[in-house]
Design a protein that fits this description.
The chain is an all-alpha fold and 50 residues long. It has two helices and no strands. Helix 1 packs antiparallel against helix 2.
Length: 50
Amino acid sequence: MNDIKLILSEEIGRLIDELYKCKNETLKEKILKEILQLNDAIMLSNDYDF
């Protein structure tokens, strides 16, 4: 499961980079929502410790 957490964390980092570069507010909101969903997935996996 650590491999999945690492992949999700890397994706969050990539999305954060995109968030700061983005000038479109609608797209920024979508990116932020994806970041929060990936973070939730990581936190849930910590709770269940797969």
